[in-house]
Amino acid sequence: MAEILAIKPAAVDGPVAARLDKGVLRLTLANPPANALSLAVMAALTTELERAKADKAVRVIVLSAAGKVFCAGHDLKEMTARRADADRGKAFFAETFAACATLMQAIVRHPLPVIAEVDGLATAAGLQLVASCDLAIASHEATFCTPGVNIGLFCSTPMVALSRNVSRKHAMEMLLTGETIDAATAKEFGLVNRVVPREYLNQIVTKYAQTIASKSSLVVKTGKEAFYAQAEMVLADAYAYTGRIMVENMLARDAEEGIGAFINKRKPEWTDE
Asked: In terms of pTM, does the model score above 0.85?
């Protein structure tokens, strides 16, 4: 039976529900209808991501959402209410965007792979959440946009994750028009990996997650960290860095076991060392 983990005493009462099953930790945004990234939601997600680092039973993380909207971005009602502050909300706005940056970087820098399971609308910081994940699988009904330009607030922070996943022209098209794209276009742009029927979305995401969970967690951690690190380097530095990583990886017990198993045509037995 799957183990139920809770951010609050009762997971269904909190903004994020956590469920661990066969090495896959599913974190579900559970504050519909908008599943907005309020400070409380971002804090809950960040806490769960940090907690997962210390739990050896967790091997892959899936981010999903309850309801018809994956995530509508920042909680604009929460932010607007703070315009009544003496500083017109400046300190709160800074706190909100800093918390968002912390969350997005926690996903990218997390030692475990993070998969977005997207059904419904992912807009602004919600799209940023999808783009920050290592993989993203969407239903045919999923839609995506960065509509800030339509309401006088350019999606500058979502732009960071978006521009690191799609071409510059596609990123600027979304940012400047604010128009919504469908799942097929999101796949064409490179924002998501696959588009599948809604009724099979959970099943397919789980299959991806369990496939990754069956690998050596040491090797996956090494590869994810190296991927993002080399992407920020010039070509020569990237090769020098990844060469060192390959040497260290070759010396790991799991590399010795995996190569030996391949040569001897048997299934490897990982120790995650």
From this structure: yes
